[in-house]
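Message: Just now I want nothing more than another pair of eyes on a protein record. I am handing you a single protein, as its sequence and its fold in token form. As I understand it, each token names a local backbone shape. Take your time, and here it is.
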Amino acid sequence: MPHFESGTFTGPAGTRAYKLFVPEGFAGKPLPLVMMLHGCTQDPDDFARGTRMNDLARQHGFIALYPAQPPRSNAHKCWNWFSPGDQRRGDGEPAVLAGMAREVAAARGADPDRVFVAGLSAGGAMAAILGREYPDVFAASAVHSGLPQGAARDVASAFAVMHTGRLRPTGPTRSGGPGIPTIVFHGDADKTVHPANGQHVVDDVVAGSPIDPVISRGENQGRPFVHTVFPGRDGRPFVEHWEVHGAGHAWSGGDPAGSYADPKGPDASREIVRFFALQRRRALA
């Protein structure tokens, strides 16, 4: 039977433990890899329960990798997306996480063109950073209840943008290139991370693009939503924005056995897996 393995990655920028789920029945096939970044106060086991991502890994055939943020690095186990030293390529947590993704993908024979990153809250903010700083590693990102890169420079500015949604040019200039394909989920009743931040993530990725969006509306599990799709020139969706009405700071369509998981609303995990399945790492100039 497949099981949740424990491991540790060490690179020049630091060390992090992780949990890893490798589904059975796909031996010899180069599977996609999805890195899942938990939110504050969470851990890999809790995040796996709330997102049900291991069940989807078993169904669809991908490796699920869950890095763990220890209390020694942040008292609340948040990824330090607001720290200048953890917002750029080659430094801090982005370097550790990208290095971990590379090492685990290579060790498990994963498809290097189908390595993805997803996260919730602080994990979503870090996923946005990784998508901008490491387009050579990650083919697409998913940002749930998160914030854009450079939204804060310290704890005070982090709380300010979380509560108000008003951006100021506080972070370091990014070293990454244009944005990678990104899917964004955010509840419009989120009292922890203002829902304007979801739109900021979208704007950051599509900035300067002439793409016209396609907007649709619907309802799922008792929650109405607005679904905005920015198609890419290759016909695949480049950015998707799911605004879930009445949803708070929790994983949409999640399992309440995990923390910060809302059983109502569109199933974010399934939509993220669907979006990732359409993407491949793009050639970089």
